[in-house]
Amino acid sequence: MAASSLPRPGTKYGPCKGTCEHTDCAATRAMAERNCVGCADQIGYEQRFFREADGSLLHMKCWSPTFSTGATP
Ligand SMILES: [Zn+2]
Ligand SMILES: [Zn+2]
Predict the structure, then answer these.
(1) Residue 70 C-alpha to ligand 1 middle, in angstroms?
(2) Ligand 2 center to 27 CA (angstroms)
(3) At residue 64, does pLDDT exceed 90?
(4) Residue 18 forms part of a structural domain
(5) What is the DSSP letter of 3?
(6) pLDDT in tens, 10-31
(7) Which of 7, 16, 29, 67 has the most CB atoms lying inside 10 A of its own CB?
């Protein structure tokens, strides 16, 4: 489980601030707009998050040892 974070729009490695046609920017924006499976808020920018094995996203701050999307109830 690797942690990553998204650079804020307008920063060196971030997407363009406005709308644009770049696929990289679109991909970054799309990921930032996805919801955390822990708190249901958007993943957002400059927040550390995990990508679960099933592809769902989870803030590092929302992770807990008892929380796992991969576990079967
Ligand atoms: Zn762009
Ligand atoms: Zn969260």
Answers:
(1) 34
(2) 19
(3) no
(4) yes
(5) E
(6) 999 999 999 999 999 999 999 9
(7) 29
